[in-house]
Design a protein that fits this description.
Pathway: Cofactor biosynthesis; adenosylcobalamin biosynthesis; adenosylcobalamin from cob(II)yrinate a,c-diamide: step 2/7. Residues 3-169 form the Cobalamin adenosyltransferase-like domain. It is an enzyme of class 2 (transferase). The chain is mainly α. It is elongated and about 50 Å long. The mean pLDDT is 90. It has helices at residues 26-46, 56-73, 92-105, 120-145, 150-174, and strands spanning 12-14, 20-22.
Length: 189
């Protein structure tokens, strides 16, 4: 099987449903950023500290779910043959919320903003959080142009919160303190 199609030689790519779009199209930007995020989660997994290996299975599940998100974002609004695979029925948002609540209960309370960082694992999770936020902005821009699977946006929004909570929990597991932003006024009550 050849992995090249030569369609991209002219700056275009084929999406699910056979529409051909420029690689700069907002739909391509959206699922391309999800692909980037998925790769970054792979980097996070490959660099987990020994104490943070407890996160491996759920991070791999997130990779599976991100692939589903990317697939749904690659389905053209005019495509009537393919159905979205990422739905509320899979309970992915509920699962993330439970993880967020669990990790939030295991970390020291904060009132001020914290700097992204700490342990290597936490730093990588914070990077994943920021790429998730960029993916969310790309998806919102697409949503303003044409219909999308709204559940993908909801999942991505919650995923950035998950990465924040997981980064803080990761620091706790590694015995590293979060660093407060020195000019932050109390924002969390």
């Amino acid at each position: 099987m050849k992995i090249y199609t030569r369609t991209g030689d002219k700056g275009k790519t084929r999406i699910i449903g056979n529409d051909v779009l420029y690689k700069s199209a907002q739909r391509i930007e959206s699922y391309g950023t999800i692909d980037e995020l998925n790769s970054l989660v792979g980097v996070v997994i490959a660099n987990l500290s020994e104490k943070n290996l407890v996160l491996k299975d759920e991070l791999q599940e997130i990779q599976q779910l991100l692939f589903d998100c990317g697939t749904d974002l690659a389905i053209s609004a005019s495509d009537k043959k393919h159905e979205f695979i990422f739905t509320e029925d899979n309970k992915a948002v509920d699962w993330l919320e439970k993880k967020i609540d669990d990790y939030s209960a295991k970390v020291p309370a904060i009132q001020k903003f914290i700097l992204p960082g700490g342990s290597r694992t936490a730093s990588n999770l914070h990077l994943a959080r920021t790429v998730t936020r960029r993916a969310e902005r790309e998806i919102v821009a697409l949503m303003q142009e044409e219909p999308i699977n709204d559940y993908v946006l909801k999942f991505i929004n919650r995923l950035s919160d998950y990465f924040f909570a997981a980064a803080r929990y990761s620091n706790v597991l590694d015995g590293v303190d979060d660093i407060q932003y020195r000019n932050s006024k109390p924002v969390f009550r």
